[in-house]
Description:
The protein is built from four helices and nine strands. It has 155 residues and is α+β, with helices and mostly antiparallel strands. The chain has a seven-stranded antiparallel β-sheet with strand order 1-8-9-2-7-5-4. Strands 3-6 form a two-stranded antiparallel ribbon.
Amino acid sequence: MATNTPTIKNRKARHEYHIEDTYEAGIVLKGTEVKSLRNGNASLGESFAYLQDGEVWLRDMYIKPYKEGSYANHDERRPRKLLLNKREIGELDKAISQKGYTLIPLKLYFKKGYAKILLGIAKGKQQHDKREDIKERDMKRDINRKYKGTYKVNL
């Protein structure tokens, strides 16, 4: 029974931040949240993760209320606990204690029936870095368009 579950991506993250490292974390969800996620009704756009009392939490992730949820529906933007082992939490704590680093959710997906979040240790990009990335992407597109399928450029 292979269900086609959606992958929810934070498309702004790679534009706004340099991603240094990634971690896969489980996420604690309520029943109606899981059903809504399986329908693809979520957004990672404004969300971020933080450490509090030795635990990792995810804030401002929007999960649309499940339409058949009735009174048991969830709060759309409640803080959600992320599941990582102690070693990973220690590594994250050390990484984000450096100046300018933060935890950004990059992708939400299902793996073996469990919801997973791909967290990135990120450092904010400056305006000129964003321009460089756009120039590089345009240059790759132009070269690939010019040679149309002969080979693909990976700079």
